[in-house]
Amino acid sequence: MKNLIVGQSGGPTAVINSSLYGVIQEGLAHSEEIGHVYGMINGIQGFLKGKYMDLAELDSQTLTALRTTPGAYLGSCRYKLPENLSDPVYAELFRKFEELSIGYFLYIGGNDSMDTVSKLSRAAEIHKSSIRFIGVPKTIDNDLILTDHTPGFGSAAKYVAASVCEIGLDASGYEAKSVTIIEIMGRHAGWLTAAAALSRKFEGDNPILIYLPEVAFDQEDFIRRIEKAFETKNSLIVCVSEGIHDAEGKFICEYTGSAGTDTFGHKMLTGCGKYLENLVRERLGIKVRSVELNLCQRCSIFSQSLTDAREAALAGSSAVEAALKGESGKMVSFVRTSDEPYELTCSLEDVNSICNQEKKVPLEWITKDGTDVSEEFLTYARPLIQGNPAIPMKNGLPDYAYRR
Amino acid sequence: MKNLIVGQSGGPTAVINSSLYGVIQEGLAHSEEIGHVYGMINGIQGFLKGKYMDLAELDSQTLTALRTTPGAYLGSCRYKLPENLSDPVYAELFRKFEELSIGYFLYIGGNDSMDTVSKLSRAAEIHKSSIRFIGVPKTIDNDLILTDHTPGFGSAAKYVAASVCEIGLDASGYEAKSVTIIEIMGRHAGWLTAAAALSRKFEGDNPILIYLPEVAFDQEDFIRRIEKAFETKNSLIVCVSEGIHDAEGKFICEYTGSAGTDTFGHKMLTGCGKYLENLVRERLGIKVRSVELNLCQRCSIFSQSLTDAREAALAGSSAVEAALKGESGKMVSFVRTSDEPYELTCSLEDVNSICNQEKKVPLEWITKDGTDVSEEFLTYARPLIQGNPAIPMKNGLPDYAYRR
Fold it and tell me: Is A186 labeled as ligand-binding?
């Protein structure tokens, strides 16, 4: 009887441990086919150093808490396997797999992690290994191709939409004109920034401008639109992706790069939100502030989407099923069968086609002037943020799962 | 029969509308003594322009939603009444009060708002007015004196504690050494930054350093402590108040002030977190990032403390009761009668003693080395973050109350 090993890799999400939960539950449920369910500590990098644990050791309270614990419970890594599949590191890995009698290898992660699954599944042929390699998608960026969406995006989108709404309510309390610029994660794909549109409650509501990295950002046009918007509204919310750039491809945040230094001459790196805050202040002389939503976007449990958490667990359990059925070199993908009512099934896609590709927001879903998203995007994204999780609490805070 | 008018002023909190809810419910319940319950739009400043509304107009759904709506529902202002009580603006105000047949004036706010209550209650004598002026405390900073704590603090503290914990879980996923600096609101009082200590789950847990503005910040000592901490831990979380300063009183954020400019020569203003991020990078050459928790600290509803929300409503209803009993020139205060079980009663304090004072974290509650808070603080703060609200939801987001 072979064993299963699962790892987590890349930047975490609010539901990356829900996928782990799905893998563990499904893995342990197949005791007739799977011996041990192991977890790599710090992904493939930690595994190379001999770091792993037996996940049957987790008590039921910890298992439940995994579903509402952000960060990678098993630890993560950012480690790229060599392109050359004859590199000795592969021999080392397959030797270690053999030692642990691994038959099923599951990896929860984004683009780079799918690259790992792809390489290992191809190296398996060289090493005449029968191990089955399956990828479980994960990224708040929602930029994996061949899947309707990615676990992690829904919760991040919910955090963004709720925060944009709340910051709007906070900022609109005063009569004086003001601009609040909210910087949202997503360097190359604007999915998460687009989610800010979900916060609108009525026609003409904030945010008045939403800028994605899929289209070029024009600073002069931006200032003109702010001036225009003040004709009908006093408190303006603008949402920008961290990766917005000008027509030549220069990131807007790079406009701060060369001259920003502190009193000791240290170079100051700031985001595009802070840069645009200064630009608006300088050009319009009005009250302006910027807010970088930052890490909370990908780790807030209070705003976790229950739909997202359930789908993340489903992706994990589906990966186990796929491996048991003999699949390898595949990633679990989501297929949406209906928008209303929202319905979803899992499928499998060739991981080699997925890794190192990026899915961007379709240009048809961005308004022609490049400052907003369309109704199609809202129809796509709204089902993904539904439902609030039941959070186990302790001392007034979520009772997160800890690996000591 | 006289009417009641209520206003909101200063920066909002996650429960400022819970206090408004308390005022409205209690006000409408006393229809034998109170005619109309009015709300000033944009505080005393908007009222001077004739802006107010009849709060009986709110439907029950909106009333309920107020309890989980951030921002000042009635709009806010930052407006300081003249020191000279013979200034014509007072005559104008009392004329308008007379027009609306106001008998009870309630003002929900912090320090500056209590200054407004103080001045109006004293001006009432000059104008031979019998209007009763009562203040309802509100501030995430928790810096009002003569009250155990302030509505708004508990929810902000809960947001800070949960976020610090979640950012810690997110950051600790990697094996490499890293420092994450979290900048928290509170320029002069460190209550909210101290709340980061609530996030610790075991001895030696992050945050490893907590810096409040009550004590001087030494940059060299800070760097030495970071180096020392790496001897036992790879992922370090440091929490700093936005208002930390050196021994001469110079704000740490001011170290970035003079030389930070963007490519157009615009002055870049950043916080102390960003400055310390650059300092650590320059001096230690390790992975470091900074996170400014920013506006979400005071407007996140998902992390609202139910205890805080209930106490905020209680402060509002107590203010109505006090006014009906003939009190004036008073602020509702909280008296803690027991820590375990946590018990609280409302009292009244002279608003003239409260305004323009600041309550700081007692030095006895800060460790001698100035880098942490004591068990006494935890005992004080923990009851204030308990309980999660039931949030009316719509389309996957809180169904916030809107004033159109």
Answer: yes
